[in-house]
Backbone:
């Protein structure tokens, strides 16, 4: 069979070096910061039963309604490529009886997630999340500690232009009071709403607060406010979280319209955006989900968490962090004339042991061609080794940036290169 070249699936992409070094550095930073807060890594399967997300994330949400990669396996079971991991972590929490573990249970995850969305900048069908979940504590200190960890992580990546947006959804009773008030207010305007919003009026009216349609924004300006329906406990909880953030000088704004697109949220919700991305494109989303674990058949255990979109994060990653973590171009060891391959390998080995990245010119190119190629690939240092020099324990160090060439004892090569970079 013949055909055109096969390309990656729409909305997915290959991550290639040296960019993958930056991804790995971001992940290493996450692991370092999260473990300093007592979090341990959880790895859940990429595949789950579809039912988990239908019950966990909610039937009326965009994710479940239109974005899931759902298929029947060979035995006809309905499986879904995870669109998010909070429901999966909650499932694992119940499945492994983690309610018996010392609380709170602190877990983090890094990995691919899948949503069938229209691909565009910062929006992919396979995307990566770095997330954390704190399970088993309902107090505001946990919210604050989780947010401080998140802000600390972003600070370690050298971000300084981030905006934390916060809101509180109150408890279930407050939300249901508010749902009723909002539906009653919007119902007479139903004909002026978009199809999506009209559908949401019955299924999930809070989601209408997210709308970007100008007419709907106008209508919402006169709508009842969620904070007017809040219960006293949620109000105090939220005030405490904000006080702690203030004390640690975490700049944040309260956004009464911030409701998040997943059904499991209760109480505190938040997003973080960067000035570098479109205003609507959050890098991080999260919040409390005090009822999810019970909804999935587990004990009544409160929890809070967040997920960072790693693709978006890296898209706006500060240049200072990126530059420090791009790999250094290797030193090229090049034979000058006929040289014993074993002697060259030994020389390369010495340089590697001294901490340098080294490649060897093994193609039999002329020295001139080798230097030209090294120059083109951005290499700065070439070590030229001739048979006789090697026997005398020496080699030539060529600096392609300055154009200088120096003969040095081989034991001094690494130090000279490290000193110059
Ligand atoms: P989410 O807001 O649906 O929340 O997703 C979190 C982040 O994942 C978003 O802010 C965004 O950066 C990234 N993201 C989502 N969809 C895409 C996409 N198609 N392409 C690229 N990036 C994307 C959750 O997933 C919740 N599980 C967060 C959470 C954890 N809440 C509590 N614990």
Residues:
């Amino acid at each position: 069979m013949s055909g055109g070249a096969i390309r990656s699936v729409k909305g997915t992409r290959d991550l290639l070096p040296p960019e993958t070094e930056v991804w790995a550095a971001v992940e290493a930073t996450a692991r370092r910061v999260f473990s300093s807060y007592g979090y341990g890594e959880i790895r859940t399967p990429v595949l789950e039963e579809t039912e988990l997300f239908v019950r966990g994330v909610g039937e009326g949400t965009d994710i479940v309604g239109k974005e899931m990669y759902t298929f029947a396996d060979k035995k006809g079971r309905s499986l879904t490529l995870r669109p998010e991991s909070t429901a999966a972590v909650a499932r694992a929490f119940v499945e492994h009886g983690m309610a018996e573990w010392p609380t709170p249970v602190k877990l983090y995850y890094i990995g691919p997630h899948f949503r069938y969305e229209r691909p565009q900048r910062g929006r992919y069908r396979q995307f990566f999340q770095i997330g954390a979940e704190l399970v088993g504590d309902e107090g505001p200190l946990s919210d604050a500690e989780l947010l401080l960890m998140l802000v600390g992580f972003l600070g370690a990546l050298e971000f300084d232009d981030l905006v934390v947006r916060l809101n509180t959804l109150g408890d279930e009773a407050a939300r249901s009071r508010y749902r009723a008030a909002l539906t009653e207010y919007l119902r007479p305007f139903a004909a002026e709403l978009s199809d999506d919003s009209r559908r949401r009026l019955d299924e999930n009216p809070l989601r209408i607060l997210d709308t970007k349609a100008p007419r709907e924004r106008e209508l919402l300006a006169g709508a009842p406010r969620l904070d007017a329906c809040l219960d006293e406990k949620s109000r105090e909880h939220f005030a405490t979280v904000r006080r702690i953030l203030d004390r640690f000088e975490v700049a944040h704004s309260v956004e009464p319209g911030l409701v998040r697109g997943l059904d499991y949220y209760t109480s505190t919700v938040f997003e973080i955006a960067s000035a570098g991305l479109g205003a609507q494109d959050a890098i991080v989303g999260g919040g409390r989900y005090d009822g999810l674990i019970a909804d999935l058949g587990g004990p009544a255990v409160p929890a809070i968490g967040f997920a960072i979109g790693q693709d978006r994060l890296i898209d706006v990653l500060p240049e200072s962090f990126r530059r420090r973590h791009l790999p250094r171009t290797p030193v090229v060891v090049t034979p000058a004339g006929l040289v014993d391959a074993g002697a060259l390998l030994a020389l390369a080995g010495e340089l590697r042991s001294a901490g340098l990245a080294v490649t060897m010119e093994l193609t039999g190119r002329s020295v001139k061609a080798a230097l030209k190629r090294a120059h083109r690939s951005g290499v700065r240092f070439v070590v030229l080794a001739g048979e006789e020099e090697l026997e005398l324990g020496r080699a030539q160090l060529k600096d392609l940036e300055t154009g200088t060439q120096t003969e040095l004892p081989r034991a001094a090569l690494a130090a000279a290169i490290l000193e110059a970079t």
